[in-house]
Amino acid sequence: xxxxxxxxxxxxxxxxxxxLQFRDANLKDVIHGYESLDxxxxxNPGSPDSVRxxxxxxxxxxxxxxxxxxxxxxxxxxxxxxxxxxxxLGYYMAYPTVNKMGFxxxxxxxxPVEVVSNDMTVGFLGESWRNAGxxxxxxxxxxxxxxxxxxxxxxxxxxALDSKYxxxxxxxxxxxxxxxxxxxSGELEECGNAxxxxxxxxIHPGDEPFVKDKLEKRDYADxxxxxxxxxxxxxxxxxxxxxxxxxxxxxSQVVNYLFENASPGHRILYHFSGMxxxxxxxxxxxxxxxxxxxxxxxxxFSENKVGLLKQDGDNLILEESLMASGVxxxxxxxxxxxxxxxxxxxxxxxxxxxxxxxxCLAKGDDFCEFACKRI
Length: 375
Fold this sequence. Notes:
Elements (H helix, E strand, L loop, with lengths): L15 H8 L4 H5 L1 H5 L19 E3 H14 L3 H24 L1 H5 L4 H6 L1 H14 L3 E8 L2 E7 L15 H13 L3 E7 L7 E8 L11 H17 L12 E3 H13 L2 H21 L5 H14 L4 E5 L2 E5 L15 H15 L3 E7 L8 E7 L1
Helix pairs in contact: 1-5, 4-10, 4-12, 5-9, 10-12, 12-14, 13-14
């Protein structure tokens, strides 16, 4: 790599759709629905211009972690898909900024490492991650052709595990690819899930695969039980002093979009995990009747900034849905939430329910609606 002029060395990276094809050729539905991904609610939790007037632009991080771990419990191999998701999301965090801030001129005469370690880039990255609730960048240093990063208060609630269990390295590589137009790889040297609460990452140009530690299935089950309990109780056992308990709702929306569209298998696992989560919620918050079950679930949803749930006859209405607010699409986006409702009602009332989303904000409806039928 010369320093004469750095443009998009890989022309694929100059086009978001081609980038998606490059990163995962199976994400056909994601590519087809690019307009939705492009217009997804990329808004900061603290922004006054919220797409949700009451709940704001954030989600409680424990709920987001529950989204991920529920699927990993059913099929640990989806970790590789989550790493691709994290990289793609990183690219999308960087790409609009590249166009908006005129990075082409900024890249000129610099190596990829110099572009990413530049003060301007570090400032953009630090502000983006702070605003999104992802973490606080404490240090970025260039060292022997690579970049060493240290991030505090990482938005990961699964602490005290002897495992490198997060996707920040892949996300950072995706950001670097969006900024420089070349392939990046990296190593997670220390994870924020450890007692220190700090992630240490080293990234460099290249395309070696990064693999997140795989836990035993029992570990996933224990983690999911702990997350569901935290979501139900409204208590984060690992609070963050500066960033608090929230993450940008965009993270939940992108994970939801990609799990729904990656393949039929991903969709089935994702929906089933939602149903199991709903069942666990009902076990922790028992109900004697339909009204009490909906009231319990409505409280859980509102406290975790998932949506405002209320009963309307045999239907349930969800306003300010986490998955659909600020999203423009042609099909409902809240099937995962519907499965949580289905699992919760079935477990709480001792009768099988079928829950189907009939209206959705993402389709242009005024609210999301779920038809709840006893089977």
